[in-house]
Amino acid sequence: MIDPGISTKKELDPILDAIKSRKLELRYIVNTHHHSDHTSGNGALKQATSAEILIHELDAPVLPEPWTWWSRMVAADPDHPCPACGMAGAYVETLKEQGKAVVGCRSCGFKFEVFASPPADRLLRDGDEVQVGMLDFRVIHTPGHSPGGICLYLEDEKLLFSGDTLFSGSIGRTDTIDGSFDTIIESVRKLLELPEDTVVFPGHLEQTTIGQEKRSLAN
Ligand SMILES: [Zn+2]
Ligand SMILES: [Zn+2]
Ligand SMILES: [Zn+2]
User: Fold this and answer.
1) Which ligand sits closest to the CA of 33?
2) CA 42 to CA 60: how far, in whole Å?
3) How many angstroms does the Cα of residue 80 sit away from the middle of ligand 1?
4) Which domains can be identified in the chain, with CATH numbers?
């Protein structure tokens, strides 16, 4: 499972049902980076399946206490702008004993929950291989959206899981406390060297190919 961003039982159950009905065993939960919309389901999935959690070593420290990162994000701008409405009033309410935090906005009422993850079972680095049955996923370190962002590359199958580094027609945001525009540009350059017919599954929205993104970014 790559990037379980799930946070409710309603989202978790169909995944567990699919694993069960296909008689599969979930071996690994791989996070392409530490953001909560990619890691919030780690704990529930691991509890249900005993899968190991894998993440790049530079993003691993955020997993067990995502509220620390969110508090630093909110504190970084003295106006505390809300990620939804842009007005002042963002806050983080940490509920450590429940293993979660509420990130919200006093101006517009927007809020969402972020869940702590169990610590990583295995730390990933550039060039590592993650073997799953017949598949050999190669880890490509693609920092910029976060310091420990990775893509997972299946060379023989010509598939790339690009996390939030490369999207169809755009790249990941870097306006976070640990993001870097210059660094993500370098990472994207590295990805564009892959074969043009590589199919790309980004962390959000529709799939694309390396060739298509090469042409779109050239414009
Ligand atoms: Zn992200
Ligand atoms: Zn994301
Ligand atoms: Zn707001």
Assistant:
1) 1
2) 12
3) 20
4) 9-62+119-218 (3.60.15.10), 66-115 (2.20.25)
